[in-house]
Amino acid sequence: MRKKRNIVRVISFTLILTLIFYFIGIYVGFKIFEFFYTKELIEKINHLYFQTKSLNEEINSYKEIILLDFFDKETKCRLLENIINKVRDYSFNVIAKNLPYRIEEYEFNSKLSNEYLKLKSEYMKMMSISYFLTIKYKKECYTNISTLLYFYSSSCGVECINQGKELDKLREYNIDFYFFIVDKDWNLNEIKILNELFEIYSVPSIVINEKYVLRGFSNVSTLLPYFKKG
Questions:
Q1: DSSP code string of 126-178
Q2: How far is it, in rounded angstroms, from Cα 87 to Cα 52?
Q3: Exposed, middle or buried: residue 132 (CB in 10 Å: 0-12, 13-18, 19+)?
Q4: Domain membership of residue 10 as a residue range
């Protein structure tokens, strides 16, 4: 009887020890994965920061050239078209594809590193300034392009995450539009001007073609008619 009890104790002890080592193994494995994932993400964010900063410098040089009276209207329009298309391509094909989640989701669910905040500072600058350049392009070059300006904030949470996902669906409708996303609360003069210009006090908010301001969550069926109005 005593021998049986000892066997049971040994088996129980072995089982408990096995479970402890199993969970320690999982924890250590997770921490190793987390370390390399974080390291890789920071490297990616740093790379995006330098790319965005470089594009901002290019935007500023374009902006200064465009303001000069040295070039004729046709040349200025060509320069404007070139830079706003570069921004659109960069935003859709570089930023959106390299962050692990969409920007609203990432900011709401993650602890934001200094590296990310540096990237965001450059990206917000790029979005707001290129939006003004796009308006200039529309007005002075008599183009028919559509614009969508989307205001969110880091603290908005699920509503902004859902709004961002809903905006992604617009691509299914083959609408040729220029998309700009800005953090309403970001400390940047250009964004403060946009807040005042469109009277943005809450998020999510969407401005289509500088005319129509939609406050709160908007689904695709609500948004589509505004593009047809022009």
A1: HHHHHHHHHHHHHHHTT---EEEEEEE-TT-THHHHHHHHHHHGGGGGT--EE
A2: 9
A3: middle
A4: 2-229
Instruction: Estimate to the nearest angstrom the gap between the alpha carbon of 157 and the chain centroid.
Output: 14
CB 183 within 8 A of CB 191: yes
Q: What is the pLDDT of residues 180-227, one digit of tens each?
A: 999 999 999 999 999 999 999 999 999 999 999 999 999 999 999 998
Q: Of 119 and 63, which is predicted with more confidence?
A: 119
- Report the amino acid identity of residue 210: E
- Would you state the pLDDT for residue 32? 34
Number of domains in the chain: 1
CATH number of 126's domain: 3.40.30.10
DSSP-derived letter for residue 32 is H
Helix H or strand E segment including 24: helix 2-67
Distance (Å, whole) CA 52 – CA 57: 9
In this structure, are residues 180 and 190 in contact, taking their beta carbons and an 8 Å threshold?
Answer: no
- Residue 192 tokens read as 């403060």
